[in-house]
Records
---
Amino acid sequence: MSQQRQIQLKKNVYNRNQELADELRERFKKAGTYVINMISSPGSGKTSLIEKMAPRLNAGLKLFVIDGDLETERDADRLREVGIEAVQIQTHGSCHLDATMIGKALEGVALEAIDLLIIENVGNLVCPTSFDLGETLRVVVASTTEGDDKPLKYPASYHRAGVCIFNKTDLLPYVRFDVAQFEAAARRANGELKIFHTSCSTGQGIEELCQWLSDQVGGMA
Ligand SMILES: Nc1nc2c(ncn2[C@@H]2O[C@H](COP(=O)(O)OP(=O)(O)O)[C@@H](O)[C@H]2O)c(=O)[nH]1
Ligand SMILES: [Mg+2]
């Protein structure tokens, strides 16, 4: 296939996804559902953060999770075990979720009853960045075990996010990680980025994050 044809195909894929994402955004808006698209490398703590946040979000706030992974139902199972309503998308090789997959996962789901939909994207800091899912807020999760240079290496994932959750702060005494350098690099990619420091082990920062998030969701109503 010629390079020009490959570029055209890619453009068509992105354009089609954008159309569907815009339709989803309209649906979410009508239903009054606040939607988060969580992006990170594998293992930074996305599922753990959802587990920790769910009981601390404002009482009465109805949560629903869409979990994306290449294979297995493990993450959705983990969340269901602690009483969180969740569906799993298994992409079978695709390194990101797209708007078509989200539309399918929401078939038969009464969106009007859901205040907060969290989409846990496939662990990857590259591909998910280019696929709008109609979200209200994009969150990039980083953790202390990944190295402080990730915002320099993957600026697009920071550039398009509204919030960064900097997780596993309990491990800071044991790893080489310069927090000031990390934050400076993240802010270079995105001057507007709001950064929360969290630990799913000690619970540091989880309360503050949940309060801020509950306020955002409440502000939408
Ligand atoms: N020490 C520590 N470990 C964590 C923290 N958050 C998650 N983990 C661990 O990191 C691993 C990956 O977490 P998981 O939530 O599955 O990450 P995901 O792939 O981004 O969903 C698991 O072993 C978690 O127990 C944290 O704040 N501190
Ligand atoms: Mg996970």
---
Amino acid sequence: MRASLLVSLASGALAARPFLSEPDTGIDAVLGDTPEGSLPDLDDLVGLPDFEWAARRYLPLANYTYYQNGAAGEWSARNNLEVFYRYLWRARQMTDVTGLPDTLQTTILGHNFSAPFFISPCARGANGHVDGELNLVRGAAAGGILYITHRVKPSAYSSYTAEELFAAREEGQVIFQQLYLNTNITEDTETIRRMENAGADALVLTIDSSAGSNRHRAARFGAGSANTQLTPLTWDYYDQLKNITSLPIVLKGVTSVETAKKAVEHGAPAIVISNHGGRNLDGSPSALEILLEIHDQAPEILDQIEIWADGGVRYGGDVLKLLALGVRAVGIGRPYMFANVYGTEGVERVTEMMKSELIIDAGNLGLESLKEINSSYVNWTPNHWLG
Ligand SMILES: Cc1cc2nc3c(=O)[nH]c(=O)nc-3n(C[C@H](O)[C@H](O)[C@H](O)COP(=O)(O)O)c2cc1C
């Protein structure tokens, strides 16, 4: 009797569980009379999910859908958001947290940044704003954070060439260039030379898309996969690439401890633990779950290589949970794309909000410095009621 009651309570909770990309925190009550096709005042937005709300009502549905969609039934995209709430904090009270704001800075591949989060590479900036990726370059400069620009023109997925984007940098601004390669060494060498000449500070090779993607929601609008060919991207090819450039080649899209170990063996300077925002292989675990696997099976990797991670990060606490697992820097994708509907100002605002939430959450966790965060600040026994 008791067991069946528990089962029915649990299934009721699951049935009622909302898709958390736009949690109900009262935005409809306050801004719901904003006419469709126009934007509320930037000052009225209070957190990263608000940008999705604003962009959904403002953009043509096809443009919004390209940003929002995930692969297949979008289970990984949902899990990326929910996973953070399966693990609750173990805060320490009675500490002096007043120095926290001065401890946000970090280095990524030896470059200095104002915070341990960055703008993940996302295609089709022009879906959100006529100035597309230029706003992300400028917004990243204003916030002192890293922008990893996605592959650029002649790809149809960008409105700018690498030369145009890198020319928009502020003096001294560091930008990394994401690449998809077609594994033709002559053509790929040419692409890499071009990125070197344009001024990329590092290359980020995406390795999770060797077979394209299966995006039902986007396919309805003809805005499907970014890469639909089968590509023979192998470790041998990575070794070849390393010989043709002195730029670091980071590997983005690691989703298993096996691949993380191989990346160390092949001398990668950093890896991005990422399931591509749940946009490629539905059923891929979230970054947090992959990191737990690394902690469990090969914790030495955390000291051997820089680990970055992204997927579903919407709050300061989400960044902190990934930092607690030893990540050096955390990527944010969709919120910056949605914020770009406001232009550079929107991009800047996301960075300000995230810095402010980081300080609040780290302070309430009892950290005197952000550098103190470690895995003991989270209870890693999953709590299935919240997420
Ligand atoms: C609209 C969109 C386009 C993307 N395009 C690329 C891309 O061209 N290359 C790539 O490596 N990742 C791409 N990604 C994945 C992001 O780099 C990142 O892994 C993901 O967005 C993180 O999840 P989040 O959006 O929940 O923050 C894209 C993501 C989105 C939302």
---
Amino acid sequence: MYKKILDQLQILTISFEKWTNKVFSQQYNPFYYHGAVPNLFMWTLFVTGLLLFAYYQPTLDSAYISVNYISNKLPFGNIVRGMHRYAADAMMIAVLLHALRVYFTDRYRKYRWIAWYSGVALIGCMLVIGITGYILVWDERSYMIVLMMADALKQIPAIGPPLAEFFVNGEMITHYTLAMSFFLHVGISFLLLYLLWLHYLRISRPVTDVPLGLGLLLMASIIIPAAVIPVSSGKPAVLIQVPAEFPTDWFYLWLFPMFSSMPAMIVWTVLFIITTILLAVPFLIIDEPKSPAQVLLDNCVGCTLCAKDCPYEAIYMVPRTDHPKFKQLAIVIDARCAECGLCVGACAFKAIDLPQKHSKEIIAKIGDVLKEPVGVG
Ligand code: HEM
Ligand code: SF4
Ligand code: SF4
């Protein structure tokens, strides 16, 4: 039943993407660059963040003033600040669409589970980066975020109180609180890079860049709002005065309306359940037993073509001593093999085979795929 629903979703997604080809053309269709689009916004965040970093001062007295200086006095400062904020929102939208796309097109299971798991971790990191980013402004909203988050963290049994103390960086709000938010904001941004390395680990030739035309369009989609609707701060935080309410950002601060309307433990439990479901998702469908590619020792001449062509890095070459002429032998890592058949096509010596699939079947399947105008995605 679940598999049937997924199959229908896949058909719908592909038809929708074919239809969007009419609008964007196949070459510039953003859905074919579903992983590259968040990547572009991430690098925009790094570059604009670096510029903001040059003028930002993480202390209770200066943070708000330095952010206002960037916005109002620094040439193009409001554009850089706006681009940083809007790129963060755009990245969240792009990441969610990307996750839905890989889910709907059944590209999240089996050998892709590492990409899925690292993706879940990337979303968690993005949330922490977003929340700490809002604290850095040090306006009334920032103050409320620190108070509510510290309170919510304290409710977690056992690890909660030390976690809250770590987050506030002490028992009460001081300059060190902002220093901690700054550290988490920048430090976890770098963690994204490590997670992305994991994310791409099992995808051989991932599409990480958008074409120039699409890139310019996407940049315009954040520069124009930055110029037309400049980002501004709220009232400065005053530690003796707890604000009654604050504006929510639905991309990164959606936890806070939840914290104010229900006990924190319920919110943490809901988050825990959602994360557990997301982590279970790649293993909900059990496929038929695997039959990975097999190398026929006598035929392999060690030409390395199969290892170069395998999109899943499932083949590596080892030195060979049992043959007078051939110096290398191809070895398949069974757990990585996606049974795609590319190596069978690459080998001119009939030295690698998929035992459960007939080569005619594979060639017919490749022919079908080539007939479909599905683009790079
Ligand atoms: C910082 C955020 C992210 C970036 C920059 C990113 C980037 C990418 C890129 C460039 C690819 C290769 C796409 C291709 O070659 O067609 C990819 C693949 C993939 N991503 Fe992400 N991703 C992010 C977040 C996520 C999230 C949140 C999930 C899901 C929870 C996810 C799941 C996957 C999966 C399963 C694949 C493999 C798809 C395939 O092999 O076709 N990613 N990602
Ligand atoms: S392509 Fe064929 S002959 Fe060449 S290394 Fe691979 S299995 Fe051996
Ligand atoms: S069938 Fe061959 S090319 Fe495809 S994943 Fe397995 S080893 Fe790699």
---
Amino acid sequence: MDHEASDLRHFIDAVERLGALRRIDGADPAIEIGGITEVAAGLPECPALLFDNIKGHQKGFRILTNTTVSAQRAAVALGIDPALRPLDALAAWKQRRGTLRMHPPERVGSAPFLANSAQGNAVDLGIFPAPVWHPGDGGPYIGSGSIVVMRDPDTGWQNAAIYRVQVHGRNRMTVQFDHAGRHGAGIAQKYWAKGEAAPVAVLCGPAPALFVAGFEYLPEGVSEYDFAGAILDRPLPVVSGPLTGLDLAASTEFVLEGRLLPIEQESLPEGPFGEFTGYYAAEARPGPVMVVDAIHWRDDPILLGSPPMKPPRFHFGLPLRAASIWSELERCGVSDVIGAWQHVAQLMTVVAIRQRYAGHARRAAMIAGAQTYMGRLVVVVDEDVDPSNLADVMWAITTRCEPSEQVDIVRNGWSSALDPRLLPEDRARGQTSNSKMLIDACKPFAELDRYPRVSALTLAQARAIEDRWMHAIRPR
Ligand SMILES: Cc1cc2nc3c(=O)[nH]c(=O)nc-3n(C[C@H](O)[C@H](O)[C@H](O)COP(=O)(O)O)c2cc1C
């Protein structure tokens, strides 16, 4: 059987079977599609949205949004049982991620996206609906959940990561690298240093497994294609790009092939673009230009749109980076970690432990704090608190944490230029660190035996009740 994350159409079928797909007709790609996506992502049971009959576009040229925004759909993309509770699903992913076997991609002879092609002067990006996602954005973005493929000219390694792509005309786009450390930026530099344009392909509507892989921090030399193969537990089929010779994932809905020109040669104003913090991080800035020399598309192609949105909305309903922090805690020898989670779109990290010794909670907090990108809040809770449940976490903070004794602040921690709280002058001089508040919301270790007994059900008792009675109590 085909894996549900092996292409977007199998995935959509799976989401439909789960009753979590809504079809929307007649929306305008200028702001409306982004607005509907944001409002839907704020609902407790956020559905995936499949837009068709998009204003100004041919019927069948579709956009899928909120693809993996729920825990259930993120689980499907990872090949995890979608019936698992969120923390159990993340635990299952952490377990699998630790034992994944990389599969290099497999060359095949054909791909559905080669059914239709246009080259040179016949290229017109305008046939594909590209939304203006947020009202203040600088233009339409065809790449928000698209994969940018580039090949290292020295080693042949192919990087396939998610970088946003703005459309500027019939055959011109910009690709945005957040910083020079992005692998795509490093590869582009190698070509540009020789005065050459970098061959590049943008995969629009990728397999959900590749979408997840595109977000992974993989070491230089390791391809996201191999990681997607690991998720699927089989090689990802690829075809050779007719123009660039780059490996193109065969299950992609449509592909844009071209050249990324040296930024010294040509640039276009890129952005502004709403970020995952819920703010703009910069005004329009010069971005490197991709000239699109060929486009290829399946019949009735589907764009995977994944705009950053105001938290708690996030691209993935399971906090994938929290799984890495959980593994890291264990690697460092912190025992009895019950779970790790991130809230507010990764900006708050929570770890649950079963305390075994004095200092256990702070040890976990310091390691989690060191590994928390951009976030300012790290909370450690006892084992009876579900770290994925923000209300429970707040209950622990307000009933177990004496701020004068259990809160520490670490200065100069890991953040980024996207941090809205940075002062412009600090951002300009590269001073992009922030401070982190480590909140020990555990019962004081020495008081464990004397602490007032909890009156509520234990997590296990609550789960047993849910399993037996949820059908009767859930609102219809
Ligand atoms: C939906 C989505 C959009 C993203 N957009 C960008 C972007 O525009 N620029 C960027 O540098 N990183 C972006 N990222 C983060 C990178 O894709 C991610 O950090 C990736 O691991 C970088 O790959 P690399 O290490 O091969 O450069 C985005 C991630 C997601 C999930």
